[in-house]
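note to self: dont lose this again. the chain is below, predicted strucutre after it. 114 aa total, dont forget to put it in the shared folder this time
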Amino acid sequence: MELKPPPACLDDDPPVDPTPLTCNEMAAIAKALGHPARMDIVEYFMECRPHTVGEIADHLDLAQSTVSEHLRILRSANILRTEPDGPRTWHCLNRVVLKRFARDTESLTVRTDR
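---
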């Protein structure tokens, strides 16, 4: 059985929602990014193309089960999106969520005089 090539990047770079993330969303994203292996995974997605668990595991020299658990955590924080493709699942970075997180994190540094 011949496998199809990866789909186009799932991130079509839509406009960033101006609504601030909730405190729970911010905390979930921060927690998900708070592990070096998950940061390595996010950095691996800098090239905007979907990846499979196997590709990520090979690149990071980690067990597939370990990568799968890290991907689960990133998906639960909405940092990754997935697209099933027969026996494979493609994972793609949700850049819009990361842009909102960066924007909302930066807003924490703005001083307001009360």
